[in-house]
Amino acid sequence: MKKLQELKKHLKQGRVYRRAELAQWTSAVDRHLATLIDEGFLEKLSTGLYYVPKKTVFGVAPPDEEAVVRSFLKNDKFLLTSPNAYNSLGVGTTQLYNKRIVYNHKRHGEFQLGGRNYFFHAKHRFPKKLTQEFLLVDLLNNLDSLAEDKEELLKNILAKVTSMDARHLKQSLNSYGSTKAKSLLAPVLH
After folding, report:
1. Which domain holds residue 52?
2. 79 with 167, same domain?
3. 17 closest CA partner among 94, 70, 57, 95
4. What would you measure as the largest C-alpha separation in the chain, in angstroms?
5. Domain count across the chain
6. Does one domain contain both 35 and 90?
7. Is 185 in the same domain as 95?
8. Are 23 and 85 within one domain?
9. pLDDT tens digits for 29-78?
10. CA–CA distance from 95 to each of 22, 156, 159 (Å)?
């Protein structure tokens, strides 16, 4: 029990830990993890990924999505987004999606982490932060996968281009655009 209490001292509420991190504080990591999960002191998010629940006045707070993804990937080279972000462009997207997309350099596929599904897309290039220009290019890249009227949406996108910063849009298109996105936007930008 002494070793278990010592392990607890190292764990901070609201933090996400990998099993390998926890192994540095105990020699019986699997047994101690099972005990902490049974006690409710720790939640298992995925294989090898654990969360120390943070208690608030409203109950237990879910883990921070970026912390979960950062621990899962073991780095911070990713961009977390959702098709819902397209709605901020004002081009007529109205659907709400229960989908989190993670652009990264390592993983590809669907993973469930902490009860949420994340769709990891391994890409060579993506920005560090979401910008309106990147979102527009990403919307064009993913146009066929959306539950929207594609013709109407494309008409609105082309109209939106005229009100955006052309230089930044060209940079985003050249850096992140698919061949189809480039063929659709290039005539409007030149």
Report:
1. 2-63
2. yes
3. 70
4. 70
5. 2
6. no
7. yes
8. no
9. 999 999 999 999 999 999 999 999 999 999 989 999 999 999 999 999 99
10. 41, 15, 20
User: Which tokens hold the place of 58?
Assistant: 């409203």
Are residues 125 and 163 part of one domain? yes
Please state, as a whole number, how many other Cβ atoms lie within 10 Å of the Cβ of residue 128: 9
Handedness of CA 64, 108, 77, 133 (dihedral sign): negative
State whether 127 and 116 are in the same domain.
yes
- The C-alpha atoms of residue 60 and residue 12 are separated, in whole angstroms, by 14
Using the Cα atoms of residue 131, residue 132, residue 135 and residue 140 in order, give the sign of their dihedral.
Answer: negative
Among 49, 143, 166, residue whose Cα is nearest residue 174: 166
Residue 29 sits in a domain whose CATH number is 1.10.10
Does one domain contain both 90 and 177? yes
**Model-level pTM?**
0.88
**Residue 174 vs residues 79, 101, 135, 139, 180: alpha-carbon distances, Å:** 18, 21, 14, 15, 12
- The CA distance from 158 to 139, in Å, is 12
